[in-house]
Amino acid sequence: MYLFTLLNSISGGHFNPATSVALVIFRGFPPLKAIRYIIAQILGSYVACLLIHAQWYAMIKESELALASVNLLESTLFTSTGPAGAFAVYVLPRSSLARVFLNEFVTDTLLAIVRWGSLDPTSLIVPPSSAPWVFAMALCAAIWGSSGIGLAINPARDLGGRLAAVTIYGKAAIGGKYAAIAALTAFPATIFGVLLYEIFLADYARGESIQSLPSFFLLFFN
């Protein structure tokens, strides 16, 4: 939230690759610049997770030894409550990936609507100074209400953290089929959420031109 507050006016809210892609599609943001932003987002997450591992190394090793002493390390290491779960997102064993995907898609769509509305310069309810707080509250609600079965939200946070977990624990930390859900779902969900906002919630009479929509979607308004 603090980074969003400080840097939103500089980058326009590029802390999530899915948001960067949506800005390319709906706001004409330069694609090559977006690619550089996305690389920076993933790299930043990767480095941050490695720094956390270095800072808390002793405590992490103690927890691993404690779990190994009661023969629980292997079954809990790559779970949301295991040591590797501090860096990458994992789901509980035998979770339904279809339900996990639905949970991720719906939550990411709702967050995209809130994020896009918070960045809308014509919004009378959410001025720029309030945007970080509004999105932070939505993010907290999403985490508290939807993270129980697995919730990645940000592909950069997921990919960077997962790469860090692989660096630390090896290929077993990839996370199986769930890794694809965690890394990719936010992209279609965010685009869908932004499209819903642009079509049903944006007030173009206050200054936003409907011509900002991609030409394909303008067919629905002609």
**Distinct helical segment count:** 11
The percentage helix is: 55-70%
Architecture per CATH nomenclature, i.e. the level-2 architecture = Up-down Bundle
Count the strands?
Answer: 0
CATH class wording: Mainly Alpha
Rg computed from alpha carbons, rounded to a whole number of angstroms: 19 Å
CATH homologous superfamily caption: Glycerol uptake facilitator protein
How much of the sequence lies in strands comes to: under 5%
Major β-sheet profile: none
Unreliable stretches (pLDDT < 50, length at least 5) are: 218-222
Describe, in short, the structure shown:
By secondary structure, this protein is an all-alpha fold. It contains 11 helices and no strands.
Keyword list:
transmembrane, elongated, transmembrane helix, 222 residues, 11 helices, transport, glycerol channel activity, mainly alpha, Glycerol uptake facilitator protein, single chain
